[in-house]
Write a structure and sequence with these properties.
- Helices cover 47% and strands 16% of the residues.
- It is α/β, with parallel strands linked by helices.
- Strands 3, 4, 6, 10, 13, 14 and 15 form a seven-stranded mixed β-sheet that branches. It has a six-stranded antiparallel β-sheet with strand order 7-27-8-9-5-12. It has a six-stranded mixed β-sheet with strand order 21-20-19-22-23-24, with helices on both faces.
- The longest helix is centred in the N-terminal third of the chain and has 42 residues.
- The relative contact order is 0.10.
Length: 932
């Protein structure tokens, strides 16, 4: 009997090792490991997955080598196999294919299992460390954990062994397999020579793993732990053995129970009702870190947990379907299983993900994908989900597309210049990517063109066309979803612009590029006109970039001269001008007898207001917490310059404090009543909501201007609305800390339609207000050192303007016409009806005639006739000026729930996991990115 058992042990060890080696060297290594290592080097997949696949390859390799030395000791072989190799190999595969981003609780279980297996292996080879007191104590601690883990894993695996054994036994005693044998004899009796032995081998061989391993693993680990504890007790006394073992187990249980307190439960409870008092808001702000962790955990539940407690029902289904257990009893078993698996199960509902995203935006005043981009990216990369091709919030500052070359050419034309930006992009990833810029220019500058090409050949470039902003956006987004080349250049604020280029072609891999071809590139040309300033010629200033990056390999030339690396800057703020500004007035006459003048200003032309009443709206959103000092300085400046003395013959400022849901907005007519140091910044509001609160409190009070003090804001949290904001006073946006990336079109229209503007300090705003009023009603803007004046004809008619422009002579592209057209559009936007399609068409006709980008007109590059036809259709629709907010939110595909019904039969689990893993890894590496 002993000889027979030893022979069986050897057969099990060597057959399974041959199977493992074949799996890893014929399947995992070439198809998974090599692409995975490449992806890890490229930063696409976290390092822990490479460690898991490396472990899966190394474990059977090392154990086979050890087995060669232990081939004459079959008992040691079987202990090595069931106690170390099989569970460790299985753990690596589970980590690779099932566990995504680890939590503290799951790390505790996996880490303890690894410690237990390592301790078992050391005890297997070296026994008890009797001669070393420190090692003996270490063995006591690790084998106490081994004893605990043996009981845990044994109990957990027992839930699967029982139905599998029942299925296996039921199939055998059903004698259905006899009919299969008869059919073989009946139809092809030669198959019996190999089929019958193979079937018995397959079933018997599988039983040695799926039935025997759980009991063998638990038995070996429990016995090993018990043996070491007994040996320690014999050497150092039972009292010390019980104390040491009890302390380790107790500490582990404390950690286990502590990690079961998932943070989203308390976060949801804290935000269940809106805070109604400053005290409640302060208490929640003090807990903001724990709230952040809780909402993030809920948002990433599909990436951090295998399932939820309420969805995990496969144990109940297996016991009902296979063993015929009644549903109440099967549910009891499911509950017991859920208790053991709680480190891997989410406590809540799958709907919590969207709930968490909403609450995060409301509390932290920014989208969760933006505020937690780094953490979310790690979670997404920790699974096999494919991201969208379109650059979203998760791609901010990602290094996927290298800016290979940048050239800037300035053509000076006196007091203004034509500037051309030429950039070459080279993709660093194996899928098409989008380049995305938010940038700003001086308020008087104007964008005049954008072109694309796969080569540097200018004569063969894809040419832009000016289209209504809504139609251009709709066509661009549709073409990106279809992976076809477009580019889109938009004005999204008085000074803000958005540039998007797609696709930058995927990088050729070593498999695709056997001839070592040059990597494909995307070439971009962008032009604009700008007035000269005292510092020289202003360059675009970056507000945000997605996917694109630059480094030492980026070649830069400015006006033909090679320049050194600029660090993190996209480009310098200014390039030097050859001559100083001339100080002369420039005038342009447009079709329809509109005249635009650019008159230079001196320092003496600028004044501060006198006898003006200003409404100052203070944004009390959460994101303003970091600008509390600047708010205090602004309020103190108002007090020092006469806005707080309640004398209308001097100046006066009324303060409006916004409020998030649950709080009440306030109006303070006496500025001295405001203590800015005691303002509580809490919750989230968009600009439209702030202005609506202002209008509700304003009543019949009239103001010379309205100044809204905010930070950069969260453009992505704005809401699309067809209702226009109507303000009776110019709206000025004061952004502490820098200009926002963009405005929603409703806010942008409120700024331009009322004659307002944007700035980063209140003093500049008040100076522009007073200077504009002093210079007269024909002044369109006082900006960048110039007064821009629009003189209308006696019978100005927007309705006839498109027809007049169509018959006019071709404008001089080298002249001032483009810059003047920008001011004409600004001037007319104060008079037009923003809800009238006819008026919008008239404004658009100016941009189209002079080929400039405006708040109403965008430049789009199309590459084929199908795209052009689609744009033509979009331009004919009534919503052609309706531009949607680009919230950048990526619709991440939720990983599959592998623990809810329908569930495969027990004997299919391992094969299913392995096959699914191979398939998904292959798709991850070689599949094209899908776009929702």
């Amino acid at each position: 009997m002993k000889v027979w058992l030893h022979g069986l042990f050897s057969v099990i060890f060597w057959l399974w090792n041959l199977t493992f080696l074949g799996t890893v060297y014929l399947g995992i290594l070439p198809w998974i490991a090599i692409p995975l290592i490449q992806a890890t080097v490229e930063g696409i997949i976290p390092l822990e997955f490479t460690l898991a696949v490396t472990g899966a390859i190394a474990i059977p390799t090392v154990c086979t080598g050890i087995g060669m030395k232990l081939r004459k000791h079959p008992l040691q072989l079987i202990r090595l196999f069931y106690g170390v190799e099989a569970p460790l190999f299985t753990l690596c595969l589970v980590r690779l294919f099932m566990l995504r981003e680890m939590t503290a609780a799951s790390n505790l279980i996996v880490g303890t299992a690894l410690v237990a297996m390592a301790a078992f292996a050391l005890e297997l080879f070296y026994g008890y460390a009797k001669g070393d007191r420190k090692l003996a104590w270490l063995q006591l601690a690790t084998h106490s954990l081994m004893l605990l883990m043996g009981l845990y894993l044994g109990a957990l695996l027992l839930f699967y062994v029982v139905p599998f054994t029942g299925f296996f036994t039921a199939y055998l005693i059903s004698f259905n397999w006899i009919q299969s044998i008869i059919n073989i004899f009946r139809y092809n009796h030669w198959n019996v020579i190999w089929w019958i032995p193979f079937s018995f081998f397959l079933w018997g061989f599988s039983a040695t793993l799926f039935i025997a391993m759980p009991s063998a693993l638990a038995t070996f680990h429990i016995y090993s732990g018990y043996k070491i504890i007994q040996q320690f007790a014999a050497q150092y006394g039972r009292k010390w053995a019980m104390f040491g073992s009890g302390f380790v187990v107790t500490a582990w249980m404390v950690l286990f129970l502590a990690f079961q307190q998932q943070p989203q439960i308390q976060a949801f409870k804290s935000l269940e009702n809106p805070a109604s008092t400053d005290r409640e808001r302060q208490e929640l702000l003090a807990k903001s870190d724990s709230i952040r962790q809780g909402l993030l955990n809920a948002y990433l539940l599909s990436y951090r947990y295998l399932s939820t407690h309420e969805d995990n029902n496969h144990i109940r289904a297996m016991y009902q379907d296979i063993l015929g257990v009644e549903e109440p009893a099967a549910q009891v078993l499911q509950n017991w299983y859920n208790g053991l698996m709680s480190p891997f199960l989410y406590q809540g509902s799958r709907e919590d993900s969207e709930k968490a995203a909403t609450l995060y935006a409301e509390f932290f005043d920014t989208p969760i994908q933006k505020g937690e981009a780094k953490t979310i990216l790690h979670a997404v990369q920790s699974t096999f989900n494919q991201e969208e091709a379109k650059a979203g919030l998760l791609n901010i500052n990602e290094q996927r597309v290298l800016l290979k070359q940048q050239e800037i050419t300035v053509t000076e034309r006196g007091d203004w210049a034509d500037v051309e930006l030429y950039e070459v992009y080279e993709n660093q990833t194996p899928q098409d990517e989008e380049v995305f810029y938010y940038f700003s220019l001086p308020e008087s500058a104007v964008l005049t063109g954008v072109w694309l090409n796969e080569t540097a050949d200018r004569s063969d470039r894809y040419v832009f066309q000016i289209s209504p902003r809504g139609a251009a956006q709709q066509v661009y987004n549709d073409q990106v979803r279809r992976n076809i080349d477009p580019a889109l250049l938009e004005q999204v604020g008085p000074r803000q612009y958005r540039l998007r280029v797609f696709p930058v072609p995927a990088r050729l891999t070593s498999f695709d590029n056997t001839n070592r071809q040059e990597q494909p590139k995307q070439h971009l040309w962008l032009t604009y006109k700008v007035m000269q300033s005292a510092q020289g010629w202003a360059m675009p200033q970056l507000a945000e970039k997605r996917n694109v990056f630059w480094n030492r390999k980026t070649q830069r030339q400015y006006n033909g001269e090679t320049v050194k690396r600029l660090g993190d800057a996209w480009m310098p703020e200014f390039l030097p001008a050859t001559n100083s500004p001339s100080g002369t007035t420039h005038q342009v006459t447009f079709p329809g007898d509109y005249q635009i003048s650019a008159q230079p200003l001196t320092e003496t032309d600028y004044i501060l207001p006198q006898g003006k009443r200003i409404a100052v709206i203070v944004d009390r959103s959460y994101s303003m917490r970091s600008h509390g000092k600047e708010v205090t300085e602004t309020v103190n400046w108002l007090k020092q310059t006469g806005f707080a003395d309640n004398r209308f013959d001097n100046n006066d400022a009324d303060i409006y404090l916004t409020a998030s849901p649950g709080a009440i907005p306030l109006r303070l007519d006496n500025l001295n009543e405001l203590n800015p140091a005691k303002i509580t910044y809490y919750g989230s509001l968009n600009y439209r909501e702030m202005l609506q609160q202002f209008q509700e409190l304003q009543g019949e009070t009239t103001y010379d201007a309205v100044a809204l003090i905010s930070d950069r804001g969260s453009y992505e949290l704005a809401k699309d609305s067809s209702d226009l904001l109507t303000l009776s006073s110019p709206l000025w946006m004061v952004h502490l800390g820098g200009l926002p990336r963009a405005y929603d079109d409703g806010t942008l229209q409120a700024i331009q339609g009322t004659g307002g503007g944007v700035s980063t300090d209140l003093e500049t705003v008040l100076q522009r207000i007073a200077t504009t009023a002093k210079l007269g009603p024909s002044t369109v803007s006082v900006v960048d050192g110039y007064r821009w004046v629009v003189e209308k004809p006696a019978k100005a008619d927007l309705a006839t303007l498109p027809k007049t422009l169509a018959t006019a002579t071709v404008p001089d592209k080298a002249g001032l016409e483009s810059l003047a057209a920008r001011q004409l559009i600004l001037g007319l936007s104060k008079q037009m009806d923003a809800a009238s399609i006819a008026d919008l068409d008239a404004i658009h006709a100016i941009a189209k005639r002079y080929e400039i980008v405006s708040p109403y007109s965008s430049a789009i590059v199309l590459v084929n006739e199908e795209q052009k036809q689609q744009l033509k259709e979009a331009e004919s629709r009534s919503d052609r000026f309706n531009r949607e907010i680009e919230d950048g939110k990526e619709e991440l595909q939720q990983p599959d729930d592998m623990m809810s019904v329908p569930v495969p039969e027990p004997h299919q689990w391992v094969g299913m996991i392995g096959a699914t893993g191979l398939l998904i890894f292959a798709k991850r590496k070689w599949g094209k990115k899908s776009v929702e």
